[in-house]
Every structure is written in structure tokens, then in C-alpha cells.
Amino acid sequence: MSATRRDFVRLAVLAGSASLLGVSPARAASATDALLLSCMDYRLTEATERYMASRGLGKKYDHIVLAGAALGAVTPKFPAWNQTFWEHLGVAIDLHGIHKVVLLDHRDCGAYKVILGEDFAKDRAKETAAHTTNLRELRQQILAKHPKLAVGMYLMSLDGKVETIAAAE
Asked: DSSP letter at 161?
């Protein structure tokens, strides 16, 4: 599909305006609002896309995937994953000017079994508490480094239903 003359003019105007303001044209033209951190679990790929679209963020977010989502970003067991999360967050801020982070964990997460050595899915309350602990830890770390970002914490069931642990502020 080729760009129309109108698309070209719109992009040129955006780029010119951005240059005058000292903003890169790529950043000015970006439609990215958020960074999503989710787990690598293939069972939830489509449900995750539907959820983001239902929040008005369809095709408006950068996406980083770590096993365990929030747990993957804070666990001392895999420090390279922690670094990867922070580097991706920095790039999303610098390149796309994101202003919110969506932390999306999910129930029956195999990474929790591997990293923490326990099957939390057997006890719903304990599972919720484990996810909440890691989501809060990551949220606290993000806000300490980037206090202007809004950070929401969510927990998805395998049927795609999402519980809000704490909405983005």
C-alpha cells in the first residue's frame, strides 16, 4: 500500500514542526501511548491484544515480553532480564515518549513455578498475593526512576478476563 500525497504532506508538516520544537520526527509521528510488559505464555497472546484494544490502546503500545512479566523484571534469579526491562523502558520513553506502563501478569504462570519453585495456581488467594507482590515491587521501582509515568498493574486469567490490581495513576 503506497502513501498518498496527503499522507506525505502530513508527515512532512509533522517532521518540520517537530524539528522546530527539537523533537525527532519519529517521536512526533509516534502513536505509541504505553509500554506493555506481559508474559511469554502463548495461551494469552490474542487475549492480551484484545485487552489492550479494549483499553483504547490497540496498536498504540510498545510490547516487552518476559517470562513471568513483573516477576521476570524483578527476580534476582535472572538479572539480565531485569536489565532488559529497564533498557526497553528507556528506549520506549526516548523513542516514543510513552507516558504509561501496563504491567500484565497472568494466572497459572509457569515462570512463577520455575523461578519461585511453587505452583501458586493451586491456591487462588496465594496466587493473587504472589503476583501482587511482584507487580507492586516493579511499580515502585519504575516510579522511583520515572515518577511522571503512570503505572497500572493487572492480572489476567486464562479465559482473558483481567483483574485490576492497581489502575494507572
From this structure: -
Structural domains counted in the chain:
2
* Same domain as 88, residue 13: no
| Cα 53 from Cα 50, distance rounded (Å) | 5
Q: Helix or strand or coil: residue 23?
A: coil
- For the chain, how far is it from start to end, CA to CA, in angstroms? 39
> Is the distance from CB of 11 to CB of 29 less than 8 angstroms?
yes
Total-model pTM: 0.82
Largest CA-CA distance found in the chain, in angstroms, rounded: 58
Domain ranges, residue 3: 1-30
CA 49 – CA 67 distance, rounded (Å): 17
pLDDT tens, position by position, 146-163: 999 999 999 999 999 999
Same domain, 39 and 85: yes
